[in-house]
Design goal:
Blueprint: H1 10-13, H2 20-23, H3 33-38, H4 40-52, E1 84-86, H5 93-96, H6 111-128, H7 136-161, H8 189-206, H9 222-237, H10 246-257, H11 268-271, E2 280-287, H12 295-299, E3 310-312, H13 314-317, H14 346-351, E4 352-353, E5 358-359, E6 362-363, E7 389-390, E8 409-416, H15 417-432, H16 436-446, H17 462-476, H18 483-489, H19 493-496, E9 501-508, E10 514-522, H20 538-543
């Protein structure tokens, strides 16, 4: 009997030879097609598991709330950018150093196969949902979820590879004719984008405005579908894509704003630990210790038993304004090289641990000699190479040492309202210039009560507003895996990603003062035009019989 779980993307299995009697063996370790298609509860479980990509009877997944898995457990996408570096590599340095190749995709290598596997599984569900016994209300909710998941997977493919293979509703099997040209023909970027946006429109049509009960955690809503459409519409209008209009992107963001469903959370630091924050549009709640490495131990300072993980770069630190709204490069800002962390944007303190920062009833010590969080401290192989540690997302109530036996959930936010406001501001500024609505959207983000950065200066030109919005995205959305795509869609990566990865060396002087010296934390950062898109893994090209077209330059 055919199985509905764990199919590889069909390009990769086109040359696998299987005997028919082997396929007809009834498995005892998984749920059959017939059972899933005759039982609404099993079908619901199947749909939920399409977020996570796990099989129905996976014991490790029991009790785990739905929501997309990140696929890169230790390193964040920030460590492929000018935001951070992963302290112990984790297959990120080759991307930073411009060594990405079809044969060596590093941390990016899982995207292609996992996306197409999920698309096939969604196609299977949509092709069969009409025959599953259930109420029409439930059927329509599930349809909405499936269109959302398929739209999300295509969004992930498009923003990494450009134009992609469009599978339509087809469910390919081992016994099919795998010479079908549709398996290997990449659609244009315009066609790919149009399809993904149409999927999200379908999802928004079926999905409820809010979820409750069994639907409450990590499952799509109308707002999630429209928010993802807003992101894709913004990408489509951006210079790298150039297949959409800024007016359409502004309208897509405005549709989310007009729902009246979401607000800016007053507590910038707290919202990343508060799964019920009204700013969150779509999230995943990871069960601490279940298929998840806790963020605190993965990113904590070595002086506290942490592994350092995604360590912020000086490049990002320099982007935070002073709390008077002026950049540190402004001679009148009050910035001092001797006291570089004094009077900065409040989001800096909520995001980055620096020498002298308060932390877990103590103080961060990245100085030498003798600092406990420096190379002179414990477990010095985990000392930050940049002189900084990550604070954003970290919950100080969770232990760093041996955290896996602690009960609780750890949110990971995929979409939140601040992104939508900044999407709107950017698109509206490009469409018509910096009108009052652009100022209002950006200032709403800047002036949440826990941040309270000054409002943007009146009278900005379109270019000045563009610069301000880009800086705002850089600091507001830091480490939320936007920067990688932002610098590419703006086509500024040849500048931002060819700058050295800077850190800071802190020396404690005899009189107790500190000297701060900029250093290169990771040598050889390099970005070429071909890197605007990822390479399709060589294994996928070979599995297609070389019919699949590789991205230019690889």
């Amino acid at each position: 009997m055919r199985k509905i779980q764990y199919f590889l993307y069909l390009l990769a299995i086109g040359f696998v030879s299987c005997k028919k009697n082997y396929l007809d063996i009834v498995p005892t370790d998984r749920v059959s097609d017939a059972a899933v298609l005759s039982d609404s509860l099993l079908f619901v479980d199947y749909v939920i598991n399409r977020y996570m990509g796990v099989k129905l009877q996976d014991k490790e997944a029991e009790g785990v709330p739905p929501g997309f898995g990140r696929g890169f457990e230790y390193a964040m996408w920030s460590s492929l950018t000018d935001e951070s570096m992963y302290n112990n590599d984790d297959n990120t340095w080759l991307v930073q150093q411009g060594l990405l190749a079809p044969e060596n995709t590093g941390i990016t290598g899982t995207l292609w196969a996992r996306s197409y596997r999920s698309i096939r599984e969604v196609n299977y569900a949509l092709n069969n949902i009409a025959g599953v016994p259930m109420s029409e209300g439930l059927r329509n909710k599930l349809r909405g979820e499936l269109h959302f998941i398929r739209g999300f997977r295509y969004h992930d493919l498009i923003r990494n590879y450009g134009g992609v293979v469009m599978m339509g509703d087809k469910v390919y099997n081992l016994t099919d004719n795998l010479s079908d040209a549709a398996l290997y023909t990449r659609a244009t970027l315009q066609e790919s984008m149009n399809y993904a946006i149409k999927e999200l429109d379908s999802a928004a049509y079926y999905l409820p405005a809010a979820n409750s009960g069994d639907w409450a955690l990590g499952r799509a809503t109308k707002g999630a579908a429209l928010a993802l459409k807003s992101r894709l519409a913004l990408y489509a209008a951006s210079p790298l894509y150039n297949v959409g209009s800024w007016a359409d992107a502004a309208a897509a963001a405005k549709a989310v704003m007009d729902l009246g469903q979401y607000t800016i959370d007053a507590d910038y630091s707290g919202l990343f630990k508060n799964a019920s924050s009204n700013e969150i549009i779509f999230e995943r709640l990871f069960v601490i210790g279940a298929r998840h490495t806790c963020l605190e131990i993965a990113n904590g300072p070595n002086g506290y038993g942490g592994w350092a993980g995604n360590t912020p770069l000086q490049n990002l630190v320099d982007a935070y304004e002073m709390n008077n709204g002026k950049p540190i490069t402004d001679a009148s800002s009050g910035y001092s090289d001797a006291k570089p962390y004094l009077n900065r944007d409040a989001r800096f303190y909520a995001t980055i641990l620096y020498n002298g920062a308060s932390y877990r009833n103590s103080t961060i010590e990245t100085f030498t000699p003798g600092g406990k969080d420096s190379q002179d401290g414990n477990s010095n192989w985990n000392t930050s190479k940049t002189g900084y540690y990550l604070k954003k997302f970290m919950d100080d109530s969770n232990p760093i040492d041996n955290p896996w036996n602690v009960a609780g959930l750890q949110p990971w936010i995929y979409m939140r309202y601040a992104e939508i406001l900044l999407n709107y501001a950017e698109a509206q500024n490009e469409a018509v210039g910096p009108d009052a609505s652009v100022y209002a959207a950006v200032n709403q983000v800047r002036q949440r009560s826990s941040v309270n950065q000054p409002a943007l200066a009146a009278g900005m030109s379109q270019d000045q507003m563009r610069t301000a919005i880009r800086r705002e995205r850089q600091v507001e959305l830091a480490f939320e895996e936007h920067r990688f795509y932002d610098v590419r869609r703006w086509k500024i990566a040849t500048t931002t990603e060819n700058v050295p990865a800077y850190g800071i060396s802190v020396t404690k002087n005899a009189d107790g003062t500190f000297t701060y010296t900029r250093k290169t934390a990771l040598a050889g950062r390099s970005f070429a035009d071909k890197h605007y898109w990822l390479p399709i893994p060589r294994a996928e090209i070979l599995a297609s019989g070389n019919k699949l077209t590789q991205n230019t330059g690889y």
